[in-house]
Amino acid sequence: MAARPSRPNGQQQAGKVCQFKLVLLGESAVGKSSLVLRFVKGQFQEYQESTIGAAFLTQSVCLDDTTVKFEIWDTAGQERYHSLAPMYYRGAQAAIVVYDITNTETFGRAKTWVKELQRQASPNIVIALAGNKADLSAKRAVEYEEAQAYADDNSLLFMETSAKTAMNVNDLFLAIAKKLPKSEPQGGGGAAAGRSARAGVDLSQPSQASKSQCCGN
């Protein structure tokens, strides 16, 4: 049976629904799409086709009496799509910057994305750094302590993840959900803002994302 997002309390219903736009950024082939696929559908595909433009998906997690619905934009990592990135992170309340722990160049690129978000994205955006492919730790090129120190210096959430084994994938999204402000209703502007520019495959399953995937344990 497919893994599902964490449910801290197992409640059947949540009293309030908050919607947040979340964008994934990072170099090509670091596993952004694999992380999203693992989080949304509990699946992993060894050979994932490169995202073209961006793909849009939705998934929800439950926190106490609140359902947090993520509108997820999985962006392409290829350099030729870089100019499109602001269209997807503009107005985003959260971002996950992904690098491959076996590739130091992707970590350097992740730092560039963090700087760009700090400079151009929403001032209160929650930024998480994900060191993906933790299942390949024998080939590690980026030390955990180095990434943690960088995350601390830049006030980022940080976890090493593995889309293949599901290590820390749900925990990462749950940690982001906990940091997002839930005092004000969040509109669906995130999806609307990027929908007209959608260039990838829509992998979302609206009928399941907010029902079977949340709280219904």
Automatic annotation (TrEMBL):
Compositionally biased residues, Polar residues: 204-217
GO molecular function: G protein activity; GTP binding
Compartment list: Cell membrane; Early endosome membrane
Region (Disordered): 183-217
EC number(s) given by UniProt: 3.6.5.2
Stored Pfam families: Ras
EC class of the enzyme, as a word: hydrolase
InterPro entries registered for this protein in UniProt: P-loop_NTPase (IPR027417), Small_GTP-bd (IPR005225), Small_GTPase (IPR001806)
Gene Ontology biological process terms from the UniProt entry: protein transport
Keyword vocabulary terms for this entry: Endosome, GTP-binding, Hydrolase, Lipoprotein, Nucleotide-binding, Prenylation, Protein transport, Transport
Gene Ontology annotations for the cellular component aspect, listed alphabetically: early endosome membrane; plasma membrane
Reaction catalyzed: GTP + H2O = GDP + phosphate + H(+)
Topological relation to the membrane, as annotated: Lipid-anchor
Family: Belongs to the small GTPase superfamily. Rab family.
NCBIfam families: small_GTP
Protein name (Swiss-Prot/TrEMBL): small monomeric GTPase
